[in-house]
């Protein structure tokens, strides 16, 4: 089978890094190509793709309306002669002249995305039930669910049997976009907990891993509450760093306002640390509605603070849930499961 993945940009992000894993698995049994349409890509990410994959850089200027780019894209597709065209943005298909002569697939990576072109694909792959439900609201059919996957064997496991009794180190991994990812709620919750230091005798710290447009705002919020000694912005870190350091934390918190899945939640589970997520559809699906993690009311700072406090005060319960979550995530969210499910959908 000849598979051609098409994506607009290829900078550091969950969808891009996961696509690397998918391609590196698929090249073992298929002929695979990757077409990056825009001139927005990270060469370090590209270098992580197996050399068996043909990487094609169209180098279109973002938002360009130059028709020559469309012609070049179609020449690339014709030259590669794929059986399957797998897109990772719904708008790509409108630039493919003869898309009806190929089997076309679209992976939808989040809720609330513009999906005006989704109806032109032969099949849609939703990364979660939450995403599928969102698609159904737009009357989009032919949808299958394939959960995101990770290379679980690369994530180092936490060794300690319970939370540190001297300090609690919290990690949050995502783009710094507080209106979507909700990092400001976590800062405000820490402020509430610091005020309760008489009832919580251990030091609580937060490491934010990621970059984004909200970094200045979040740092100002941190300073406003005098939390500079307790909060650290570590910037952008590659996956190898994250996979080797998750085990050093006592808790992963994902306070998102909307989230299609929550890959970092699954990674925290595999590392064996307790995870705490807002009670929205995607992350709740990852932790099986609270069976394999803790939840708080989305957007409720007091609820978030109380749940952090609960996890700290109940280390044995948190550890037991984390152990079960590790087994569940390793079994269900490994990248091999995702690739196998893709193959089954391709031949439908």
Automatic annotation (TrEMBL):
GO MF annotation, one: glycosyltransferase activity
Glycosyl transferase family domain segment(s): 160-327
Coiled coil segments of this chain: none
Annotated Glycosyltransferase subfamily 4-like N-terminal domain residues: 12-153
Protein name: Glycosyltransferase family 4 protein
């Amino acid at each position: 089978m000849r598979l051609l993945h098409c994506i607009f940009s290829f900078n550091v992000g969950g969808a891009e890094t996961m696509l690397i894993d998918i391609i590196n698995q698929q090249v073992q049994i298929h002929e695979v190509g990757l077409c990056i349409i825009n001139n927005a890509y990270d060469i370090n990410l590209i270098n992580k793709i197996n050399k068996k994959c043909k990487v094609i850089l169209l180098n279109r200027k973002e938002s360009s309306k130059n028709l020559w780019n469309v012609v070049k894209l179609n020449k690339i597709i014709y030259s590669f002669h794929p059986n399957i065209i797998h897109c990772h943005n719904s708008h790509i298909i409108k630039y493919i002249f003869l898309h009806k002569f190929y089997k076309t697939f679209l992976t939808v990576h989040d809720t609330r995305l513009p999906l005006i072109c989704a109806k032109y694909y032969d099949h849609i792959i939703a990364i979660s039930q939450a995403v599928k439900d969102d698609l159904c609201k737009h009357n989009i059919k032919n949808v299958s669910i394939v959960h995101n996957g990770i290379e679980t064997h690369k994530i180092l496991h936490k060794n300690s049997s319970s939370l540190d009794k001297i300090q609690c180190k919290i990690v949050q991994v995502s783009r710094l976009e507080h209106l979507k990812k909700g990092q400001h709620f976590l800062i405000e919750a820490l402020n509430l907990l610091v005020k309760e230091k008489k009832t919580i005798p251990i030091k609580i710290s937060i490491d934010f891993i990621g970059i984004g447009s909200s970094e200045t705002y979040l740092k100002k919020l941190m300073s406003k509450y005098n939390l500079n000694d307790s909060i650290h912005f570590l910037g952008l870190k590659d996956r190898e760093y994250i996979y080797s350091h998750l085990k050093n934390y006592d808790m992963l918190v994902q306070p998102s306002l909307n989230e299609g899945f929550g890959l970092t939640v699954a990674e925290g589970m595999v590392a064996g640390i307790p995870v705490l997520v807002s009670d929205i559809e995607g992350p709740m699906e990852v932790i099986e509605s609270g069976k394999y993690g803790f939840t708080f009311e989305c957007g409720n700072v007091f609820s978030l603070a109380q749940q952090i406090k609960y996890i700290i005060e109940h280390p044995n319960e948190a550890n037991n849930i984390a152990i079960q979550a590790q087994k569940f995530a390793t079994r269900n969210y490994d990248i091999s499961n995702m690739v196998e499910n893709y193959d089954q959908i391709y031949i439908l």
